[in-house]
Fold:
Amino acid sequence: MSDLLVTIPRDQWFNWLAYGDLVGQPWTGCEWGYYLSGRAPIIRPGVCGYIVCNGRLRGYAPLVRIARRAYGFELVRQGGAVAVTVDFNIPGFRGWRARWWKRREERPFPNWKDA
Structure:
């Protein structure tokens, strides 16, 4: 399985920033999850979870596991978030998608928190 991509709704962006170990922060020892319904992906060590908000790729964090829940599943990460973007728009979507661009297309994104 390749890396995964999910969308944070624009009106939830600042709430999402208050949740979890962010880019540049040391790992707190906690795990953080992103809940989804539908078909769960299969992940292996090294798979990353990418975040999109307001049409922009914001970055990624390594995923550590999939947790099954009563109504879906959770993509679980720990620390290690990295801020990157690409030079094209990514419209929001429901669920998850596989990363389709090449990693060499990514570039640092110092303003990743801006809505």
